[in-house]
Amino acid sequence: MSRDYKDCICKLHIDFHTPKGADNLCKEFDCQDIVNKVKNAGFNAIQLFTKGHFGYSYYPTSVGKMHSHLDFDLFGTLTNAFVKEKIKVIAYYSLRPDNYQAQSNPTWKFSGIKVNNCFNHVDANNVMCFQSPYIEEIVLPQIKEIFETYPVSGIFFDFGRSNGYCGCSNCQQAFFKTHGMELPDKGDYQSPAWEIYKQWKRLEQERVEIKLHEAIHSINPDAILVINYSYTLRNPKKVPDYYGMVSMDVHENDYYGLNVSLNAKYLAGLNRTWDIMTTRMANWWGDWNLKPINSLLYQNAVILAHGGRAFLGDRADVDWKLDDNIYDYFKQINDFIKARADICIDADPVPYVGIFHARENYNTTASAANDQPDKLFAIKGLHKALVMKHIHHLILNNDSLKEYLPKLQMLILPDLEVISDESAEQIFEYVLNGGVVIGSNGCVDNSKLKTLFGVKSKSEFPRGYLLPEKSKLGQTCSDFPISIPGKFRIVELAGATEIMKCCKPAYDSGEMLKFGSADKKQSFPGLTINNTGKGKAIYCVANIFTTYWQKNIPALKHLIGNIVKEYVPKRIIEIEAPECVEVVLMKKDNNQIVHLLNYQQERTGKGIMALMDDFIPIYNIKVKLYSKIKISKVIQVPENIPLEWEQKNNYVYFNVPKLEIHQAIKVI
Questions:
Q1: How far is CA 212 from CA 160, 223, 599, in A?
Q2: Which of 434, 403, 439 shows the shortest CA–CA distance to 419?
Q3: Residue 92's beta-bridge partner residues?
Q4: Structural domains in the chain, sorted by start
């Protein structure tokens, strides 16, 4: 990360994609008023447009096209004014969407993208292929212009990832040059060249990223390089050394709060500076309505609680006027952030329960795109269940797993179909040394893990039931069968012990009527446990994590939580609170910090963003925290109110009197 960016804890992005027809652009522009509003709201970094999705630049460019209705250097004027006020400037650059270049150079366009598939921001197919001359002739020269002309601290590229198949002539030539074979046809998954093409295409972002890195850092070695969503949950790769920080604008159109928490639990484990952009718009970028302040406070409390930095998003009108009401609102949010910055930002997560986000499993699809949303369903379901059952956790990729695994109390492999031999070996050693692992369905296809779990997979059936018993990790209310619409494994015990049974339906009536009742007369092992070395391996034959995300069956939430709490060797943090309370445990300056977050949503219809306008305070939350070290104080922060506490048998006990949106407690 740029050295001069370390103290920037409140960053602002102002969206300004303007089409060709915006003929009254910035006619009433008032630079000083803009700077005053941003400064008074408490921001210390801002992200400004150099080029938007329509392809027009907002500064005089010798290689692209400045917006024809802009008669001055908008980017330069704002940048110089903000830097004068000691507010850092990050340049925003739309990388793949570019209406102007697509129309000017149609042979440079990406082929095969549907307008409603990720790129409904621009006209049909007006996005750029990175194998065309576009990068060399437009992007790199414009980077040179920006960094040699303006005092920017870094650059944020939007839409840099691979979005799947492109069969244009540029790709045909580049693929043949690299691999000496013809480009396969779209969807020809049986072609011998398809797997090679898929891997080549998925590495496209890294090839372009290296060019961007070299161009930027040859001019300013300390500049921040960010590609939106790169090295996040949707691209689970090791962050290169030259890459300054990780940043993303979180998807907000459904679970606005849960999605922030999901991504924060992954970013917190990367050991890199990171931020998550949240917007003030009620329905994300395509909207002008104002999101309730409690929703935005909650989102940023989640980011802070996981050690991240705030990044707020706004949209400027055609004159670049900023609304007084919005910046008064932003000041309240920034004051909230700054009051918590010392205990939150750059804190480290305390290892407890880990979720393995295996890169090789994420990439087991025929698609050549970087994004594989279906492959995140199991992680989302598990994350949601653990949040609601008050279980602190991290999401780990192959690289962060190496660091955190020896420190974890438990590792969960959520419906993983493929695990590398290297990761399987690490997991095996972890269990031998006393760790606990939970796996499901396809993870036993790995020969090493098959031995670990003590079962042999014999056959499959397409849908069925888990048969809980209240006395053995069942539901909290009854022994009623839990229906799972996905694949079940029939396994033979090879050292493992059965904990729970499963069964087929009494009859299969097809998709129209779903499936029949549980046939309990013929059952099979459904949940097993195997003692291996000093540790334990628990295995479920069904895709319980994916099913919980897709079907929201409450019994699965209870089952997942009960398994974790029963078999985790040491419970390092427990709370007594309603399910709407999320708990996060961090460490900073040798102090443990407990974060409590109150997540309540409005009632809403399917597909409509569920925001938090009002909230119900939670009172008298009981906390039990593991600590072998003798403590001296328990302080409620940022209010700095001492709390009564008791320490016995390596646990600290205290009550939090009231939780509104966020409450932190520092244990010294």
A1: 11, 12, 39
A2: 439
A3: 49, 156
A4: 3-347 (3.20.20.80), 353-570 (3.40.50.880), 574-667 (2.60.40.1180)
pLDDT band at 611, cuts 50/70/90?
A: confident
pLDDT at 124 over 70: no
Bridge partners, 48 (sequence order): 91
Tell me how far CA of residue 377 lies from CA of 200, 421, 444, 552, in angstroms: 26, 23, 19, 12
Predicted confidence at residue 108, as pLDDT, reads 96
Residues 6+ apart with CB under 8 A from 506: 516, 517, 518, 519
Residue 367: per-residue pLDDT: 87
Nearest to 97 by CA among 165, 157, 173: 157
3-state secondary structure of 585: strand
**pLDDT at residue 46 is higher than 70:** yes
Q: What sign results for the dihedral spanned by CA atoms 129, 134, 139, 144?
A: positive
**Banded model confidence at residue 34, pLDDT cuts 50, 70, 90:** very high
Q: What is the pLDDT of residue 94?
A: 96
Cα(542)–Cα(526) distance, integer angstroms: 8
Residue type, 344: C
Q: For 137-156, how does the pLDDT look when each residue is reduced to its tens digit (9 = 90+)?
A: 999 999 999 999 999 999 99
DSSP β-bridge partners for residue 464: 484
- Residue 117's pLDDT band, with cuts at 50, 70 and 90, is very low
State how far Cα 260 lies from the chain centre: 7
* Residue 311 to residues 154, 246, 387, 498, Cα–Cα distance (Å): 15, 12, 23, 49
Element housing 170 (H / E): helix 169-179
Confidence (pLDDT) at 123: 67
The DSSP secondary-structure symbol of 600 reads -
The three-state secondary structure class of 51 is: strand
| Cis status of the peptide bond prior to 97, with omega within 30 of 0 | no
Mean pLDDT of the chain: 92
Write the DSSP string, 86-121: T-EEEEEEE-SB-HHHHHH-GGGB-SS--TTTT-TT
- Averaged pLDDT, 528-532: 96
- 8-state DSSP, 351: P
| 651-659 β-sheet, strand order | 573-576, 618-626, 651-659, 645-648
Residue 1 has pLDDT above 50, yes or no: no
**Helices 554-567 + 377-388 axis angle, to 10:** 70
Per-residue model confidence (pLDDT) at position 112: 65
Residue 646's DSSP bridge partners are: 653
Q: How far is CA 610 from CA 216, 256, 285, in A?
A: 40, 7, 16
Kind and range of the H or E run holding 57? strand 56-57
pLDDT at 478 over 80: no
In the chain, the amino acid numbered 218 is S
pLDDT at residue number 634: 98
* Residues recorded for the chain: 668
DSSP H helical ranges for 185-292:
194-202, 204-217, 256-267
